[in-house]
């Protein structure tokens, strides 16, 4: 498999999305890997055809708080190992992060907390960002040492640049576009060495937005936010050939308030790299 297609999408509840069009999307997607966020369901609450779809290997990480958060990963080839959480006890059962390890790639599905200025939710978001930064750094260091690639996909709940949010002037004091959040994302791209694949391929584009409120005419007016990212290690980012946001044709055809973000890479997913060593702290697939 020398061309790798990866999609990421916040489904806004897997059970609701299943009946609105997600099932059909999954059945027809060309993606080799799919990252889901905000599934809001235990594994046994997934529709049976989505818990273990034919032709897919699945990893589901629900939140300890029922009906909240939750992430999942679908892969067309079997992972060599999996991981839930990133070694921070506060968040390891929060349904915010899951990871699959494939022969040449580590892929993570991320649902970063949304936050709310002046509340405990914002403090929680900041603690998450701090802990996750450490994990991102460790993953990228491993990629540099082994030749494996790293790809972190998901709902990062931060619009990085003014081009990533339609009404940026009105949101400068709101969580998701705070200066300190945007600066943190800058450090992900500079200090830890990741590339925002969509922005790298579309440097002069407004958006493309990936989330629109269900309220008002946000979708019809394309008044959205770009908060769903594919962040790749340098060795994979240079192999990216295309990046699209699969925006629904009409409001009525939406099955989530987010749209899938799909990127294509020239990357052999199955071939074992020449330099490979065991991954520490990762539980084996059962």
From TrEMBL:
Top-rank taxon, per record: Bacteria
Keyword annotations of the record: Hydrolase, Magnesium, Metal-binding
Protein family (similarity comment): Belongs to the DNA repair enzymes AP/ExoA family.
Species this protein is from: Catenulispora pinistramenti
Annotated ranges, domain Endonuclease/exonuclease/phosphatase: 8-258
Ranges in coiled-coil conformation: none
GO MF entry, a single one: double-stranded DNA 3'-5' DNA exonuclease activity
Cofactor(s) listed in the protein's UniProt record: Mg(2+)
The protein's name in its UniProt record: Exodeoxyribonuclease III
Alphabetical list of Gene3D superfamilies matching this protein: Endonuclease/exonuclease/phosphatase
InterPro entries: AP_endonuc_1 (IPR004808), Endo/exonu/phosph_ase_sf (IPR036691), Endo/exonuclease/phosphatase (IPR005135), ExoIII-like (IPR037493)
Organism phylogeny: Bacteria, Bacillati, Actinomycetota, Actinomycetes, Catenulisporales
PANTHER family recorded: EXODEOXYRIBONUCLEASE III (PTHR43250:SF2)
Enzymatic class: hydrolase
EC number: 3.1.11.2
Pfam families: Exo_endo_phos (PF03372)
